[in-house]
Amino acid sequence: MKRVTGIGGIFFKAKDPQTLGAWYKQHLGIDVQPWGGAAFDWNGPDNPDGVGTTAWSLFAQTSDHFAPSTAPFMINYRVHDLHALLAALRTEGVRIEGELQESEYGKFGWIVDPEGNKVELWEPPAGQ
Predict the structure, then answer these.
(1) How many C-beta atoms lie closer than 10 Å to residue 102's C-beta?
(2) Domains and CATH numbers, the chain
(3) Which of 18, 30, 104, 111 is in the most buried spot, having the most CB atoms within 10 Å?
(4) What are the residue boundaries of the Glyoxalase-like domain, all occurrences included (predicted)?
């Protein structure tokens, strides 16, 4: 079974997300949008048509989105079959955090690594 197939997003906390986003936009050319992040479209051997994105997003320092982790970051990994992967991870003794969520943006699940970092797993919608 395929597990991680790529990085779907990088999220990190900032003392002042708007100011930091403006800095990244000015100095690195990242097209930070009003929602607080940017989407990088990509393609590759497994995705020659380039359908897919990697998200980059800033969160307020006070955000609890990464809880129970106290780390100031969270990485989102693209996966092939989230239901099967979560089942396999559960049998391997990996800590699953919360319930699987499904939306028009795909399927999302969370685990916690041995150092307490929350990791987001994302199965994109069909065709992405």
Answers:
(1) 13
(2) 4-42+50-123 (3.10.180.10)
(3) 111
(4) 10-121
Instruction: Collect all residues with Cβ–Cβ distance below 8 Å to 106 and sequence separation of at least 6.
Output: 122, 123, 124, 125, 128
The residue behind tokens 């992040």 is 37
For residue 54, which of 40, 75, 73 has the smallest C-alpha distance? 40
Residue positions counted in the chain: 128
Q: What is the pTM of this model?
A: 0.82
Q: What is the pLDDT of residue 39?
A: 87
**How many CB atoms within 10 Å of residue 59?**
19
* Total H helices, total E strands in the chain: 2, 7
Q: What is the pLDDT of residue 29?
A: 86
Which H or E run includes 120? strand 118-123
Output the 3-class SS for 58-99: EEECCCCCCCCCCCCEEEEEEECCHHHHHHHHHHCCCEEEEE
State residue 6's pLDDT score.
86
Low-confidence ranges of the chain (pLDDT < 70): 43-47, 50
Tokens (6 digits) for 41: 């479209």
